[in-house]
Specification:
Helix content: 40-55%
Subcellular location: Cytoplasm
Function: Specifically methylates the cytosine at position 967 (m5C967) of 16S rRNA.
Number of helices: 20
Structural class: alpha/beta
Catalytic activity: cytidine(967) in 16S rRNA + S-adenosyl-L-methionine = 5-methylcytidine(967) in 16S rRNA + S-adenosyl-L-homocysteine + H(+)
Number of strands: 13
CATH class of the largest domain: Alpha Beta
Protein name: 16S rRNA (cytosine(967)-C(5))-methyltransferase
CATH superfamily of the largest domain: Vaccinia Virus protein VP39
CATH architecture of the largest domain: 3-Layer(aba) Sandwich
Shape: globular
EC number: 2.1.1.176
Amino acid sequence: MNKRPAKKNVRETALELLETIDKNQSYSNILLNHAINKNQISDKDIGLLTELTYGTLQRRMSLDYFLQPFIKNPRKIESWVMHLLRLTLYQMLYLDKIPDHAALNEAVEIAKKRGHKGISSMVNGVLRNVQRQGVKQISEITDPIERLSIKTSHPKWLVKRWVEQFGYEETEKMCELNLTAPTQTARVNRIKATREEVLAQLEDEGFAAKASPFIPEAIHSLRGNLAHSDAFKSGLLTIQDESSMLAAYALAPGSDEIVLDACAAPGGKSTHISEKLGNTGKVIALDLHDHKVKLIADNANRLGLENVETKAMDSRKVQEVFAAESFDRILLDAPCSGLGVMRRKPDMKYTKKEADLLHLKKVQINLLRAVSPLLKKGGILVYSTCTVDKSENQEVVTAFLQEQLGFEGDESLKERMPEAVQSLVNSYELQILPQHIGSDGFYIACLRKKVQ
């Protein structure tokens, strides 16, 4: 009879996750959920597993800087051993609850189980030397860009780029915040209930949540995953970051209008637009992949929304399917580098390249060219991304406006925004940095098609 493979403990699971993320360049948030289910991690250990995995990923460059003096030839060390050393050093330096000796002993046991005696001896030696001698100070780095890069584990090219775009102080705030766990936020479906009613129901269910100070229909989770609540299952809530809720505010659809959401999965913005329409009119939600389109439809059904129509297609080909000037409003939440969501996907810091941004810029402009003829005269086109980089944001919109003389920036954008974010609006644009309201980084440009 075949034995079932032994379940891995929390640290073994974290190590396996770090290896898989590195090897496959897969997103950590997806793999973490899979690992929790596969290894039947208990509720009390999920928090530790998340902390170990995300924390080690978040601070990888700092950890390598600290380990470097203690490792003679890092290139000869197998990748899983480097991950084990980082994981253990993270516990020793950043987690007060775990005694150094416990973290160290477990690392040696894992090394024995997975490797030979030489590996476990090396792991033991490196970690005991760190424990005895302490780590070198990041403050010793004289170049301010490199120092911030190592201190916050952001690649040097990205720190340099952000300092040029936002200045050192704002870049430092953004990089520091990217090391912290994001707050889970949710949007109340105001077709079904008020925010106060939903907060009361969540309290009855044993969750702790509070009203957002920024967005009237948003709530912040203080304890518990709101996606596991009955309020979520019965369609009173959508899990969504607050910054992306602002896209529907910028669009501000009126009753019975026909709206196109050109890159819609998983449907957070489509369903928000539908709710703002009060279940009138129609939202046509497009995405390239069938399984993603199904997600949008499933979300709309859960929320009890009947005015969302989904279609799997490449949005660059919309003119082959829809007539010119057939939509009152269009949202293009364009594919982007995702540099605004690094707190959720910390592994992204080590896989993105500067050249990726140039390629994306071309895709984004082509999408704007494709969808813009479908907008009625006087209609609103909202371009949004979950990045903070100017090449994908302001530069794309400026290039589009210079090319398409039938469009202009809509300077009434500020009036439609929630009061708490109005001061961040600059003419027809809004760039949210993570430190502004504690959300993801997000960009919105609001454009109007000229009547004449």
